[in-house]
């Protein structure tokens, strides 16, 4: 889907937002953040290059006039148009692809990843990459690399089915390279991973500076996700090798990296980012839009807000409720938020768990709420049970509403909360239950924590601070103030398990 919305303005900085699965086609924390930046900067011209699922997703946000173009790049819809290369061009592309796949599997060949990636990007721009990757030639390249002596993945005895699967996954992951890369201004990738691909192509082809903002650690989330993915180890080795080397390339090439917390910064430095190119910028909210929530509910209630997704680990939250109700039987859990398409099975699993534990009557899935403030007001305590987060909006919104919180110690949660809420280890129902019982049983402490939480947001995490910081960054990068490329640092290769599981 290509939406043309208006003419460019002379003299206004131009920023192309590079997104994946978020703005402007879906809701969620990162989409809220994008909307805040766009609506907060009417003096900046924006384009959006959005990596989507099918390409048929409707716009979920009302876009202001200074968003000029929206281009949707589907990863799972129809393949990009084009023809497979022939003759010398086919041999050059096969050679580049061989270097590319070798880099994913052989630590000694990793230096070839960047040059091979940009060769693939040029082929994608000419409409040749996707047809090539859907051909037998690409499968033959991968199988020949897999057979090289000394490769750890060879010991897992890759099959033809593995080669077909891995090649198909790479073809889909590389589809963003088929989009026309930004030709001017600043390319701002609002996550790592495949959203960065057009930005890297824009830097290599047009000299457009790349700004990278990671809310969660994309690479870490891929590691977590592929632990339970239904693929054998050879396939996981290819795909995770791609995401690892893409992260390193992104960190090296970005003119500036703006993590939302210090935890992300550690991953980025480990991945090869020059510390001088990293600037932490916290998410912010408008305290006036999230005023004190008012009276607490009469019945003791835990509330949660977000999207129903495995990374939010609602199963731990439900198990913790069961432990809470052993000592406070009247406690309820209200879950606010939509279920993404494809996530219905996870919601059903959570509902089944509540029923299995005997608490189906106390757990309610409320769906999307018109005013998110109602979700925070619905609880005496607001919960966050995620196994991975950046700097979560739901947490600082709840804090701005003056609610005490219990959160898992992931990402920037501890930086956000400080001493105004309780922080517990992830995937620990007993610790989460104990923290919830502590606050439910002490209304004076709960009220004091809520008041301190709102004051902390006002002092440190306002939307105006966030928008002003990024406006200054856009002007800085558009003016050509770019940093030198840092030295290459290689992340350790994930351990190989003969059973097909991902260690770590």
UniProtKB/TrEMBL annotation:
Residues 14-276 form the DUF3492 domain. InterPro entries: DUF3492 (IPR022622), PelF-like (IPR047691). Pfam families: DUF3492, Glyco_trans_1_4. NCBIfam families: PelF. This is D-inositol 3-phosphate glycosyltransferase. It comes from Streptomyces bikiniensis. The gene is pelF.
């Amino acid at each position: 889907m290509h939406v043309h919305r208006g003419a460019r303005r002379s003299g206004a900085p131009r920023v192309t937002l590079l997104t994946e699965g978020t703005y402007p086609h879906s809701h969620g924390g990162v989409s809220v953040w994008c909307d805040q930046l766009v609506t907060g900067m009417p003096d900046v011209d924006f384009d959006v290059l959005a990596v989507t699922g099918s390409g048929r997703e409707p716009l979920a946000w009302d876009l202001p006039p200074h968003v000029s173009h929206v281009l949707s790049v589907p990863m799972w819809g129809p393949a990009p148009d084009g023809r497979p290369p022939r003759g010398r061009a086919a041999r050059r592309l096969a050679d580049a692809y061989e270097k590319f796949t070798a880099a994913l599997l052989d630590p000694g060949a990793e230096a070839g990843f960047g040059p091979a990636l940009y060769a693939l990007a040029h082929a994608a721009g000419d409409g040749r990459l996707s047809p090539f990757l859907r051909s037998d030639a690409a499968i033959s390249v991968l199988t020949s690399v897999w057979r090289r002596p000394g490769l750890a993945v060879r010991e897992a005895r890759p099959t033809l089915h593995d080669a077909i699967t891995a090649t198909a996954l790479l073809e889909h992951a590389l589809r963003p390279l088929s989009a026309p890369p930004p030709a001017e201004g600043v390319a701002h990738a609002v996550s790592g991973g495949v959203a960065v691909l057009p930005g890297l192509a824009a830097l290599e082809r047009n000299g457009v500076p790349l700004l990278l903002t990671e809310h969660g650690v994309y690479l870490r989330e891929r590691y977590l996700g592929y632990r339970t993915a239904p693929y054998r180890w050879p396939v996981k080795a290819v795909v995770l090798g791609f995401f690892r080397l893409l992260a390193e390339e992104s960190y090296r090439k970005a003119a500036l990296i703006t993590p939302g917390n210090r935890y992300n910064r550690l991953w980025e430095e480990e991945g090869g980012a020059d510390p001088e190119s990293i600037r932490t910028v916290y998410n912010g909210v408008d305290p006036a839009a999230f005023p004190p929530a008012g009276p607490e509910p009469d019945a003791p209630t835990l509330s949660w807000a977000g999207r129903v997704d495995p990374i939010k680990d609602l199963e731990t939250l439900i198990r913790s409720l069961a432990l809470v109700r052993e000592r406070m039987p009247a406690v309820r859990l209200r879950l606010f938020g939509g279920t993404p398409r494809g996530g219905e099975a996870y919601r059903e699993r959570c509902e089944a768990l509540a029923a299995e534990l005997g608490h189906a009557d106390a757990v309610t899935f409320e769906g999307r709420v018109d005013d998110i403030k109602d979700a925070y007001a619905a609880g005496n305590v607001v919960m966050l049970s995620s196994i991975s987060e950046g700097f979560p909006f739901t947490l600082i919104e709840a804090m701005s509403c003056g609610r005490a919180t219990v959160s898992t110690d992931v990402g920037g949660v501890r930086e956000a909360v400080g001493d105004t809420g309780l922080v517990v280890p992830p995937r620990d129902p007993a610790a989460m239950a104990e923290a919830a019982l502590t606050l439910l049983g002490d209304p004076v402490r709960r009220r004091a924590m809520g008041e301190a939480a709102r004051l902390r947001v006002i002092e440190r995490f306002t939307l105006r601070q966030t928008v002003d910081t990024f406006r200054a960054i856009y002007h800085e990068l558009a003016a050509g103030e770019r940093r030198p490329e840092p030295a290459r640092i290689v992340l350790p290769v994930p351990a190989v398990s003969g059973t097909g599981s991902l260690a770590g």
